[in-house]
Specification:
Layout: H1 13-20, E1 30-34, E2 40-46, E3 53-60, E4 65-70, H2 72-76, H3 85-93, E5 99-100, E6 105-106, E7 112-117, E8 120-125, E9 131-135, E10 142-146, E11 152-157, E12 160-165, E13 171-175, E14 185-187, H4 192-197, E15 204-206, E16 212-219, E17 225-228, E18 239-242, E19 252-259, E20 264-267, E21 280-287, E22 294-299, E23 304-310, E24 317-324, E25 337-338, E26 344-350, E27 353-358, E28 361-362, E29 369-376, E30 380-386, E31 393-398, E32 403-405, E33 412-418, E34 421-427, E35 434-440, E36 443-448, E37 461-466, E38 471-476, E39 488-492, H5 511-518, E40 522-526, H6 536-539, H7 548-563, E41 568-578, H8 580-591, E42 598-602, H9 613-620, H10 627-633, E43 646-651, H11 660-671, E44 677-681, H12 691-708
Helix pairs in contact: 1-12
Length: 712
């Protein structure tokens, strides 16, 4: 699809606005929760497109009106937020860079809502005239969740799990470290691997009747200690962090059922069938919507996944279903779920499609890729699916195999469902706006207001499949470019990592790419092997092979050049990226210098043994068993081959991809006598969420690329 031409934007306007608005995401309604009866929608939104402080709002379906429930500025009396180190680390794992009410928990009827603000606990009654009050706590508050009945709120804090009675205000430490436990023992929070790699941000779960909780306990004492220093401030003591480096010990994770009196029953989830000397090491998910709790557990190599049901009376578990794969087993977000008849809804890989199943029986069509589950209705599931290239659509998937699309099949949608009310947040590739509708029985009953800034850029992008493997690809020319006006230098702009996806039918995905195009480049965004949205077989092409992804980028480049004859200058091709994209960018000039003439590599993983257990071992195996695989895929072993300009950028406070990655590659390059540039970002983490730095980084990258490619 090709968009219409628009006027070019001043090169300084977009970087400044993009940085201040978080790529124009501030001001958009988000984090929707629909009440079980469908009467209310609770959500978050900032007051304008540059404020980073979210307020809590409620939309009344009957009246079509929305009202603010909680205003952080009013609740804090104008004082700034104070967060604990634990909360800051948790937000880094969850990629939360905003403030105010960043998350909330509602009871089943969405009449009462709990949230943390400045590490303090607040509860709001949202029916009728909204009222908000603070509840005194005995510890700084992390991740509060109200019980389904709305009577009590549990929160993590000071290494323990606390419960506050909403009416009396009494705060009880329900469970916490015992005498003799090391300081690395924590109750009620998810460990590093869960939040960073398994998309599980919770560490406790209420029983449906609100009378007990299932609580995680983790012990990080076996995990290696790493030190994150601040070289710009040498008087500061380095921050000690436990980091599960590939091949080393993970945290020891366990669960206990704890009642409201603090009585504890430990849960045992050891497999009752042989696992070839393996153990179920990763707690990937917990579901306790109805009936008994269900655990999703993975072996360390992630080739075996078990769904096990917990007996709350004994703490024992029973195997319900098992999934195996000779590479790895994928998780289906939003599953497992217990149906009304007691059967278990799960995701299952069948052929080259990810389907939904009840037990071992798939019920969704064998040509429809299911991405996630949002809700379960009486005889159907509300889910996201991938109906075509780059699209993510909401759909009603009937247990009888029927499919009803609930959003634009060409665009990208997200939403929430409850009691017959559907929220649809719709993005398209045509305009950088989001429309958020509330729909009942197929009719729109309201639209949630957006206060977001509008991007001055409208990407002009054409999406296609190219190459022998039909790589999903997006191509962007400068605004107003006239075909035949001469070859332009090329900038490849990938992510490239397994399970990521860059080519999507949302204009927001290409805003920065269009800005780079308007600096005089043809920008190409391509999803190579292992990227999301194409199915299990495609995902597994990345097994033991990260370096091959750069060959995919080279193949896409050649195919796009053939599609646009005379438009691409193949002697001046650069590549840029961040995180795994930084790895791919550096890989381009190290492995394929005949194709890529320059690279900007941000926060790259260079020595693959330095990244975490769960991610690296899923794709590359255990480094003790597969050392050659790690050597073959690590950039440091390729340093002597650098012959092209390379800029390395890294945040010195990054505790995910630590700066040692860039320093080790730089050291190897120096040892081989290979010139390169290093740009350290003092005090910044992996998100690099300083507006000033984000803005200036765009200009610095363009300046480097112009020098490297000899662009006048």
């Amino acid at each position: 699809m090709l968009l219409c031409e628009t006027a070019a934007v001043d090169q300084d306007t977009f970087p400044q606005l993009s940085a201040r608005t978080l790529n124009f995401q501030l001001g958009l309604p988000r984090a929707f929760q629909v009440s079980a009866d469908g009467a209310r929608v609770a959500f978050l939104r900032t007051d304008d497109g540059t404020s980073r402080s979210h307020s809590l709002w409620v939309f009344d379906v009957a009246s079509g009106a929305e009202h603010r429930v909680a205003d952080p500025a009013a609740l804090l009396g104008g004082s700034g937020e104070q967060l604990t180190d634990e909360e800051r680390a948790r937000r880094e794992r969850l990629r939360v860079s905003t403030s105010g009410v960043v998350a909330f928990s509602a009871d089943d009827r969405a009449e009462r809502v709990a949230f943390a603000l400045s590490s303090r606990l607040f509860v709001a009654d949202v029916v009728g005239e909204p009222s908000v009050r603070e509840l005194a706590t005995t510890a700084p508050v992390i991740d509060p969740h109200i019980d389904p009945t709305g009577r009590r709120i549990a929160y993590a804090g000071a290494r323990g799990l606390h419960v506050v009675d909403v009416d009396s205000g009494a705060d009880t430490l329900l469970v916490g470290p015992e005498d003799g436990d090391p300081t690395e023992v924590v109750w009620g929070l998810a460990e590093f691997v869960a939040t960073e790699e398994l998309d599980r941000g919770r560490g406790f779960w209420w029983a449906p009747d609100g009378q007990s909780l299932l609580v995680e306990r983790y012990d990080e004492s076996p995990v290696p200690v790493w030190y994150i220093s601040d070289p710009a401030n040498p008087d500061r003591v380095p921050d000690a962090r436990r980091y599960p480096q590939a091949g080393t010990n993970n945290a020891i994770v366990s669960l206990a059922i704890v009642d409201l009196e603090g009585k504890r029953l430990d849960v045992g989830w050891a497999s009752d069938k042989p696992l070839d000397k393996k153990v179920l090491e990763y707690l990937a998910e917990v579901s306790w919507d109805s009936g008994d709790p269900v655990l999703t557990l993975l072996t360390r190599d992630q080739r075996v996944m078990q769904f096990r049901q917990v007996d709350p009376a004994t703490g024992s578990t029973q195997l319900i279903e098992e999934r195996t794969d000779d590479r790895w087993v994928d998780l289906m977000p939003g599953t497992p779920r217990r149906l009304d008849d007691g059967q278990l809804l799960t995701g299952i890989d069948a052929g080259d499609v990810r389907r939904l199943a009840i037990g071992d029986e798939p019920f969704t069509p064998d040509d429809l890729l299911v991405r996630s589950v949002d809700a379960v209705d009486r005889d159907s599931v509300i889910a996201t699916v991938a109906p075509q290239l780059g699209s993510v659509a909401l759909a009603r998937l009937g247990f009888d195999g029927s499919v009803e699309l609930l959003s634009d099949p060409v665009g990208v949608a997200a939403g929430a469902f409850g009691g017959g009310t559907l929220v649809v947040a719709q993005r398209t590739v045509d305009e950088p706006v989001v429309s958020t509708s509330v729909v009942v029985d197929g009719a729109t009953v309201g639209v949630l207001e957006s206060t977001a800034e509008r991007s001055p850029l409208v990407p002009q992008v054409e999406t296609m499949r190219v190459g022998a493997r039909d790589y999903p690809t997006a191509v962007l020319f400068p605004t107003g470019h006239q075909a035949g006006s001469g070859p332009l230098p090329v900038l490849m702009d990938p992510y490239g990592g397994p399970h990521g996806q860059r080519v999507v039918n949302s204009s927001f995905a290409y805003l920065t790419s269009q800005w780079f195009a308007d600096q005089g480049f043809v920008v190409i965004v391509a999803d190579g092997r292992g990227m999301a949205g194409r199915g299990p077989a495609w995902d597994r092409l990345a097994y033991h092979d990260f370096v091959g992804t750069i060959d995919d980028q080279a193949e896409v480049l050649a195919a796009v050049a053939e599609r646009y004859p005379g438009e691409l200058d193949l002697d001046r091709v650069a590549i840029r990226g961040w995180s795994f994209g930084g790895y791919i960018a550096a890989l381009g000039v190290l492995k394929r210098p005949e194709v890529f003439a320059a690279a900007v590599s941000g926060a790259p993983v260079t020595d693959l043994r330095l990244y975490d257990t769960c991610y690296q071992e899923r794709y590359l195996g255990h480094p003790d068993h597969e050392p050659d695989v790690y050597d073959a895929n690590s950039l440091t072993s390729m340093a002597a081959g650098l012959s092209r300009p390379l800029m390395l950028i890294h945040g010195l406070a990054d505790d995910n991809v630590v700066v040692a990655h860039t320093l080790r590659l730089s050291s190897a390059l120096l040892g081989a006598g290979r010139p390169h540039e290093v740009l350290p970002l003092s005090g910044l983490t992996h998100m690099a969420n300083s507006a000033t730095v984000t803005q200036n980084l765009l200009h610095l990258q363009v300046d480097f690329l112009r020098r490297a490619l000899k662009i006048q």
